[in-house]
Specification:
With about 750 residues, this protein is mainly alpha-helical. The protein is built from 31 helices and 10 strands. A 4-stranded mixed sheet has the order 6-5-3-8. It is elongated, with a radius of gyration of 48 Å.
Amino acid sequence: MSEKSFIKDIFRSKESYNLKSGKLIKLLIGIITVFILSLLLPSYQSMDVEFELGSVWNKEDLIAPFSFPVYKDDKEYEMEKKQVILNINPIFLEVDNLQNIMSQFDSLKSYIEKIISESSVLEKRQQQIDFNPVEKYITDKFQFDINVNQLLTLLEIYNKSNEQISLINFNELLNTIRKNLVEVNQLKIINISKNEITSDKISIKRESEKIQILENTDKILDKTEAVNYFSSLIFQSLNDTNLKLMITGIGYRYIAENLIYDKSLTELEIQSRIEQIPKTIGIVQENERIVSKHDPINRVTKLKLESYKKIRLERFGVQDFVKQYIGRILTAFILLTILAIFLYYMRIRIFNDNYKLILISSLIIIESVFAYLSMQLKIEYPLELLIFVSVSSIMLTILFDSRLAFFTVVIIVFITASIRGGDFAVAFIGFCGSVLAIFSVRDIKNRSQIFRSAYFIFAGYTIAIFAIGFDKIDYTKNIVSNLIFGGLNAIMSPIVAYGLLIFYEKTFRITTDLTLLELADFNHPLLKKLSALSPGTFHHSVVMGNMAEAAAESIGANRILARVGCYYHDIGKTLKPEYFVENQLDRKSKHENLNPNISAKVIISHVKEGIELAKEHKLPKEVIDFIPMHHGTTLVSYFYHKAKSLMDEEKENISDYIYRYPGPKPQTKETGIAMLADTIEASTRIIEDPTLNKLEEKIDEVIKRRFAEGELDECDLTLKDLTKIKIAFLKILVGIHHQRIKYPEDEMKEKPKSLFDNE
């Protein structure tokens, strides 16, 4: 095996490996995207058609495949539960604690009588007798929050007309208090606030009996009401405020609740009552019609449909789950396969670029996540109008083209509608806004033009919202709410798209028309350098750019890329401008004293040097490709023939390898046009007394030569394209040379002449 053959095998193996790895990455992108979408697609419960009260059933008659109960509406059932809880009679246990309470009061009364009988209060207060031990004893024994000193003060006020406290008067007061305590403690007093009772009756259960007695709430008191009643009985004969406060304190200590709330029994009663509430309002028999086609959905029909969904979900088994998940995967797979087929047949370069596939996949997933969130967030606003499908349409149009954007948006609205359970309204509204957004940025010239799309998006949303709203005979407030959120979408979409566009351009290495238009500015450092150091090359590049733009537009190629690529195709000449004929101001050439071999190397080196300059200034790959491809593998013929003329005729012919550009050949229509424009512009510039025929002949000659050499074999230019390119070049060149001749297009209308017609 020869060395050359061995090297070819190595490169062939490497190319095969890259091809396989590229296919593997594509497969991985597809699997991940399908998997994520399958998770976002609705579960069985939400997969059925959404039905609203008042809407019309537009499907076939729905027949019950099995019998099932018709459940009440959840809100209605919850209201009945709340009503039961509000009307339930709370249960209280009756306790008899009157004797114990009065025994405590009598002990306190006797103890204080003993103290008073020993000495007058005034005398003890004057002698400052320490009552602290007595106070502590009373507090510990009776848990009474009014100390003895306060009671003595009370008695002093009560008997202030006497120098000595009268035991008779004291007993009179205490007896009055005791009498009223007995009376109040015999009333029905509950141990919770009366405000907590929502029913008009309570149930009273005695410890020795199982029977519950009902009592009206207006015949019971809580502790606060009982103390107030007790105080009112005593206060009739008292005027002193301090005395009244003391009496109230006694009431709080010696009035006890005799009806104790039993929470557990009450909750059992509530649960028992709730279980008695019927959850159904009827039953649908097997083979019974649930709803007929075109029937309006009333309250009963809606309950039947919801009950049918609920029962089917309860019968949902493992086997059904597997089937459902397979269906969700198939749904995502089919939609993405359709998109993949479109890319493969209509946009093969995008299909072959995994970065671009990841970009498209990411946009689809982002929109799907927004659709999923709009279902999960339980907010009474039309969040489905904030899915921002129009953001994807704007970005795809700018990053790629309008046709791909349109096709992808169709797939996206199908996916978002599927995630929302087949919501046609969301798909229709999103589609209308997105399509108009595509048209608004189709011929974008600068980044600020993105914001113009807001008007088009809002117009699309408005028309679609009115159409859907009027069709459903929706309420005016709902239509207005939808319009508000549609307007919010229209405002936010350009802003979000503007921010994401920069990120996507850098992350996925995408060169947009916006980037190219920014590079077309002659103030770019490389173009300023080219203009200053190589004015002849700069002029040649500008003319060539005009020719390439016209030709690209005539065959449907990217005219902006063709023009910008021509501007930068010869930037390598800025390093040695004097070695190129268009920059030589004097007639003496730098190559006169150089060996043809050296001259060829100097000429060819501008390609490599240009690529390095372009990378240094971070030009996009699409623009850098013009630097080597506009020469392809053509021959530096002048120096090749000069070298041959210097060789002895008897010696072996020299190889043309070192006199050829390294390539590659043009790979795109735009670089193919640049190759032709470069040669034709230079060739026609030296024509003496140029006429229409001379220009046309020169164009024919150059195109035929490049075609015959095989330089255009890899750039997808057809013979029809080449004819259109010739016509476009001719128009530009005639204008440049200012010849007073008949306009070429008029001649061609009279007798169209194909590039490859027989002469």
